[in-house]
Design goal:
Helix content: 25-40%
Strand order of the largest sheet: 7-6-5-3-2-1-20-21
Largest sheet: 8 strands, mixed
Radius of gyration: 28 Å
Oligomer: single chain
């Protein structure tokens, strides 16, 4: 029988960075390639991607990567993967168009994207893969079933069960799921983020009924925030704009970008005559909807700038109604709180969608149980979510009659090995480390760099510059000291003078003792100055001595 191993390279006990690997004999299928946003103490980090070391070492085995939809947490790491491992990509029509633009923007030129139907049969290497349509916030979303002679490996992706969904690009086919279940499923991988919520997610994911009264009663303009990739929610907002015959101004180009792609695929067409462009936008106009879009914490920063009157286009007024239709997600808490404080300072009124009443489009407990009922897997593997989510998801299966030895909870890097339709081992593992992306090109920022940034942010920096004669090592022209974020210079001249003296004395002593070496002397200066500054100021700033040797 086929030798099967399943491993997550990201997404377990964390929010985001989703990536799964299924090995069938000597071939590998990858599922997702996502990022996660950094915590507030990870200064200067744009996002975090999975560790690709194992994939690079085994790239000949990889036959393809399936990306179920275009959200950042499952797709944004794709350029970094393809720069190392050039394998075919399989994804839906909208995601294919968007990812093609992303890859070109990131400088990836050699790639192959295959558009797959939401219900399809594909052969990737020697592995047969079956896709099935699932409802999510992004059109063209699908799950996959990997065929083996031990049974299907089924990954449902991100989904909800919504029987009222009419748009074909969002709908799901329950009959297809049932067919796969009847054919035999070895292992089901279900996401876990919403496992703590009771009941079904639908219809609580819809926001139209919540926003309608605001559209009806507001006599002034409405500012609405929405994540630019929450396309179903954006569609609901724009449907209300049409119904109430309003005009809309898009604060952020991504919304118009996605609308353009959706119109090209005949998924959704918004009337151009209702769009106010930059040239015609009047900030004093009260009869308008301003849709503010962005990604992650940048969206809340936009709102904060508007509230602080620092935005170039939109200036907050106390008569504005602000609707936060973008839930606070992991890594955005600090920016969201700052934004809310600034709005309240200006006397503004905020309507935040209550996450206990308005759900994101992820499966709640009954949605997850429905997948267990339809697929009837031998083994259940909760994925995607913090550890508490994984445990809650596992308990759902246990309460449906699954034995503990049929429920598999893994860590990132841990393999589940199946032989003869039996889970044989979870002992194999690979060591993984987060790969942090700093800006566009700097990969894998180390903990040392992060610690330096934390020091700079909290304690400040002191740069000490001095020139010495290359031959005699005598100091030329005195010592120059510059500080940022450490002390107020007018009140601390004595500190600067003492730092200059410490620097001069250290260099002269090392020269006299014939122990002078440029690097070692800089270390001596740094240690002495750091101890002095801690005693005088209570701070441990970053101290950077620079000794320049001239007249060489």
């Amino acid at each position: 029988m086929d030798q099967i191993r399943i491993c997550a390279l990201g997404g377990l006990d964390e929010n985001g960075k989703n990536m799964l690997m299924v090995e069938v004999n000597s071939e590998i299928i990858l599922i997702e390639a996502g990022i996660k946003f950094p915590e507030s103490d990870q200064l200067g980090i744009e996002f975090i991607i999975p560790d690709f070391t194992y994939l690079i070492e085994n790239k000949e085995k990889i036959k393809g990567v399936f990306v179920t939809h275009g959200h950042d947490d499952v797709s944004r790491a794709l350029p970094y993967l393809l720069k190392h491992v050039n394998v075919p990509v399989y994804t839906g029509a909208l995601s294919a168009n968007v990812l093609r633009d992303l890859l070109k923007k990131e400088g990836v030129t050699d790639f192959k994207i295959n558009k797959v139907k939401r219900t399809d049969h594909i052969k990737v290497g020697n592995i047969k893969v079956r896709t099935f349509a699932m409802t999510h916030a992004y059109p063209d979303n699908f799950g996959i079933a990997i065929a083996t002679n031990q049974g299907y490996i089924v990954y449902t992706g991100e989904f909800i069960v919504d029987y009222d969904m009419r748009a074909p690009e969002y709908s799901f086919d329950i009959n297809e799921l049932s067919e796969i279940g009847k054919a035999g499923v070895l292992c089901l991988l279900n996401e876990s983020v919403g496992a703590e919520k009771e009941g079904h997610t639908a219809p609580f994911h819809r926001i139209s009924s919540t926003l309608e009264p605001l559209f009806e009663s507001s006599e002034h303009r409405i500012l609405i925030s929405c994540y630019s990739q929450s396309l179903f929610r954006m569609r609901e907002i724009l449907d209300l704009v049409i119904r109430f015959k309003k005009k809309v101004y898009f604060h952020g180009e991504e919304a118009k970008y996605f609308l353009k792609h959706m119109a090209e695929l005949n998924y959704y067409k918004f009337p151009n005559e209702l769009i106010v462009n930059d040239r015609n936008f009047d900030d004093s106009n009260d009869d308008i909807i301003i849709l503010i879009t962005g990604r992650g914490k940048n969206l809340f920063r936009k709102l904060q700038k508007i509230a602080m009157h620092e935005d170039e286009r939109v200036h907050f007024r106390a008569t504005d109604t602000i609707v936060i239709a973008s839930p606070v997600v992991s890594g955005t808490e600090e920016e969201a709180n700052s934004m809310e404080n600034e709005i309240y300072k200006e006397g503004g009124q905020i309507y935040s969608l209550n996450s206990k009443k308005i759900y994101s489009m992820h499966p709640s407990s009954e949605d997850l149980k429905m997948m267990l009922y339809l697929f009837k897997p031998r083994y259940y593997l909760p994925v995607k979510g913090e550890y508490r989510h994984l445990i809650k998801n596992a308990n759902l299966a246990f309460n449906m009659g699954y034995r503990p030895d049929q429920i598999v909870i893994l860590d990132n890097g841990q393999f589940a090995t199946f032989e003869n339709k039996i889970l044989k081992s979870v002992a194999d593992r690979i060591e993984l480390e987060d790969t942090m992306i700093d800006g566009k090109e700097n990969w894998d920022v180390t903990g040392v760099v992060l610690k330096d940034r934390e020091i700079l942010s909290n304690e400040g920096v002191m740069v000490i510059g001095v020139s010495v004669d290359f031959k005699t090592k005598k100091i030329i022209g005195g010592v120059d000291v510059q500080t940022r974020g450490l002390i107020y210079l007018k009140d601390a001249e004595y500190i600067l003078k003492e730092v200059m003296k410490i620097t001069e004395d250290t260099i002269n002593e090392n020269v006299a003792n014939k122990t002078y070496e440029n690097i070692e002397t800089r270390v001596d200066v740094k240690e002495k100055v750091t101890r002095y500054l801690l005693k005088e100021t209570g701070k441990r700033p970053m101290v950077l001595p620079v000794i320049i040797e001239i007249n060489q």
